[in-house]
Design goal:
The complex is a heterodimer of chains A (about 350) and B (about 375). Chain A has about 350 residues and is mostly helical. Chain A has a domain of about 170 residues: ABC transporter involved in vitamin B12 uptake, BtuC, CATH 1.10.3470. Chain A contains 15 helices and no strands. In chain A, helix 13 packs across helix 14. In chain B, strand 1 and strand 2 form a beta hairpin. With about 375 residues, chain B is α/β, with parallel strands linked by helices. Chain B is built from 15 helices and 17 strands. Classes of the chains: A mainly alpha (about 350), B alpha/beta (about 375).
Chain lengths: ~350, ~375
């Protein structure tokens, strides 16, 4: 009798594949659809056929070709990549801290990247180079992000409470903003305008070389992260259990933080600090896929991040067109309520 | 228990920055259930964390199956040793099956894909802790007891030779406490697993373990068979008992009365007295009792409760003890007739009761003491006067 119930119970406890594939398919289709919309819709309206024609002729020299190939397409791709990277970066941080209320923005990691990038953009540390290259920007941002991450981790190891961690992150954010503000005040006027736009977060103005850096470097980081799914899953049980199962904790910890802050730095260097995507998206992915298994969740968070970022960018561009809204204000509408809901849920069951 | 040494400590000093335990020299044999006993804060957890390599030893060395613990590669260690920590977290959105399957970590390939062999090992681990029915449930929905079984199953899925557990029954209800302990004992018997667990119930440890390691004041006090090591004296010293006593024969702790409520005499024997003694001790009374035969259950309970017991040794005549016993009636608040009503012992008890009546002491008769509720009420009535 008992063995029968055991056998009956077993198939249902293996994760079902079909609903997950369906969820993946739906997300991928939505991302593709939103990309198309992002290319199709803009402040100057063209017909679908015109846009399609322009897409098919990359060498075209008319206005529309320029708009599609130099503005809309890079922007649509940047939104997809940016969203995916930020979401993965947040997922890693959430696994690392075993705390659902963390992300690169809320922990001040994006602000760290901002400071270093502003140092390069405003003070002309990059003057030796012909133009501020995407590589230099990215390198600076990643260093800034990693620096803040290490600081937050050092402080977090002394205070064990998850909510305190948020406060530590907020303080980091304030400190970095203060440094950025001082740099802005000291900078030459003509450098400031573009910089201020950048600090509000936007996927606009991506050049093809920048897209290439994002795709190449980001793709490499993403591949590394996916290959780390197994130890990441062990981390779900906490560091000490992970260590007891054979994970080399010290090296792995540094690796997770490095990968997470590199992804956040990469996005921040080019799109500026984008709020809450890294925090909210992993939850949306977890809930829609119904699992914490990182082998499923990493690609899931990527797709969900691409989806959310594309949608937010579409809203930012079209809602009050021709005025373009700052991207972070739209993503905050997604993210902030999720933080509050999570905090309330925590408060109810400590 | 074939005498093979699974884990050995040589001149081991453990602690964080400060020394917590030093000069630990002990060798744990295969297939044994080893209980780590000692008061809170003495360093049981610190010792376990050192044995599980979460903490570096301050000095000395630990060998596991003949290899130096510090030099063993992480995965190889994980195949030999699994741990159960006091961590109470429940990872979200993870089924018990997936949770237990994480224990296959040192056995699976690069992406952690489960082979049919791994799945069978997970099922087997769940069955070993009688938790197969939990497999499809989410970990976050489990009760404390169910969660602890899942944690045990995860450790077993690691397929270790050695299992270290820190307070595995803390915060569990009685049912799950008993269940977890019997599962652990069965694992030693059937799989030859060596279990090292810190426990807070010395009576449970005495009944379950094959070896007991007593730790106090920064050192190991004793190690060996619990039947030898856990004497009443050793346990009292270990925990600094003043008002309690551990009885090896009873395998449990008895709490003494401090005597502030006075003294009572109980005629007892053949186990009739044990519960009466406890009723008195709970009311803060000290106890005199007699005349008991050597080896009577009542004599063990009386000893553990610190009672003055008049015990007739084999071959002695009960009459010889009668003057002492009746002398002990002086100063008693009342007398309880709790002994057997027939046989030679009954005759002696009748003579003690007669002496009590002569002294004008209240005597609670057998009709009252046979019903413990009635007896308790009568005691409270006498105390109120």
């Amino acid at each position: 009798m008992s063995s029968e119930t055991t056998l009956a119970a077993i198939p249902s406890c293996r994760p079902a594949v079909a609903p997950r594939l369906l969820a993946f398919g739906a997300m991928a289709a939505l991302v593709l659809f939103l990309m198309c919309l992002n290319i199709r819709i803009g402040s100057i309206s063209y017909s679908t056929a015109q846009v399609w024609d322009a897409l098919c002729n990359p060498a075209g020299s008319d206005n529309l070709s320029f708009i599609v190939w130099k503005i809309r397409l890079p922007r649509a791709i940047a939104a997809v990549l940016g969203g995916a990277f930020l979401a993965t970066s947040g997922l890693l941080l959430q696994v690392y801290f075993r705390n659902p209320i963390v992300g690169p923005f809320i922990l001040g990691i994006s602000s760290g990247a901002t400071v270093m990038t502003s140092l390069v953009m405003l003070t002309g540390l990059g003057l030796g180079f012909a133009a501020v290259s995407p590589y230099l920007n990215t390198l600076a941002a990643c260093i800034g992000a990693y620096g803040v991450t290490l600081l937050v981790v050092t402080i977090a190891s002394r205070v064990k409470s998850g909510v305190t961690l948020l406060i530590v992150g907020l303080m980091m954010g304030y400190l970095c903003s203060a440094v950025t503000a001082i740099l802005t005040a000291l900078a030459e006027k003509e450098r400031i305008k573009g910089f201020v736009l950048w600090t509000q977060g936007s996927f606009a103005g991506f050049s093809w070389p920048e897209i290439q850096v994002m795709l190449g470097l980001g793709g490499l980081l993403m591949a590394c992260i996916y290959l780390l799914s197994k130890p990441l899953n062990a981390f779900l049980l906490g560091e000490e259990y992970a260590a007891s199962m054979g994970v080399n904790i010290r090296a792995f910890r540094m690796l997770i933080l490095f990968l997470s802050s590199s992804l956040a730095g990469l996005v921040t260097a080019m799109a500026g600090p984008v709020a809450f995507v890294g925090l909210a998206v992993p939850h949306m992915a977890r809930l829609s896929l119904g699992t914490s298994d990182n082998r499923v969740l990493i690609p899931g968070a990527c797709l969900m991040g691409a989806l959310v970022a594309s949608l937010c960018d579409l809203i930012a561009r079209t809602w009050l067109s021709p005025v373009e809204l700052p991207l972070s204000s739209i993503t905050a509408f997604f993210g902030a309520p999720i933080v509050l809901i999570l905090l309330l849920k925590r408060g109810m069951k400590p | 228990m074939n005498g093979e040494i699974v884990l050995s400590c040589t001149d081991l000093c453990v602690g964080y920055k400060r020394k917590v335990l030093s000069d630990v020299n002990v060798a744990f044999e295969a297939g044994c259930f080893i209980a780590l006993l000692g008061p809170n804060g003495v360093g049981k957890t610190t010792l376990l964390r050192t044995l599980s390599r979460h903490l570096k030893p301050l000095s000395g060395r630990v060998e596991i199956l003949g290899r130096d613990l510090q030099e063993l590669p992480a995965l190889e260690l994980a195949r030999r040793m699994a741990v159960v920590l006091t961590d109470k977290s429940r990872p979200p959105l993870l089924s018990v099956f997936e949770y237990v399957a994480l224990g296959r970590y040192p056995h699976t390939g690069f992406m952690g894909r489960l082979t049919p062999r791994d799945e069978a090992a997970v099922d087997e681990a769940l069955a070993a802790v009688a938790a197969s029915d939990l497999a499809p449930r989410l970990v976050e929905t489990l009760s404390d007891g169910e969660r602890q079984k899942a944690v045990l199953a995860r450790a077993l899925a690691q397929d270790p030779k050695l299992l270290l557990l820190d307070e595995p029954t803390a915060h569990l209800d009685l049912k799950h406490r008993v269940e977890v302990m019997s599962i652990l004992r069965d694992l030693c018997r059937t799989r030859g697993l060596t279990v090292i667990a810190s426990l807070h119930d010395v009576d449970v440890a005495a009944k379950v373990s094959d070896r007991a390691l007593l730790v106090k004041s920064g050192r190991v006090v004793d190690y060996g068979l619990p039947e030898r090591v856990l004497t009443s004296r050793a346990v009292a010293d270990l925990y600094d008992f003043a008002e309690a006593d551990f009885s090896r024969h009873l395998g449990s702790i008895e709490l003494r009365g401090d005597g502030r409520a006075g003294r009572a005499f109980v005629t007892a024997g053949l186990g009739h007295g044990a519960e009466i003694f406890r009723l008195l001790a709970k009311r803060g009374m000290t106890i005199s009792t007699g005349i008991l035969a050597e080896g009577d259950l009542d004599s063990f309970v009386a000893e553990a409760l610190g009672a003055t017991a008049f015990v007739r040794h084999n071959g002695d005549a009960a009459e010889d003890l009668l003057p002492q016993a009746t002398a002990a009636l002086d100063g008693c608040a009342f007398v309880v007739d709790g002994g057997p009503q027939t046989g030679a012992a009954a005759e002696i008890n009748r003579r003690i009761l007669a002496a009590a009546r002569e002294r004008g002491l209240p005597v609670l008769p057998r009709e009252t003491s046979a019903d413990l509720a009635k007896l308790a009420a009568a005691m409270d009535g006498l105390a109120a006067r």
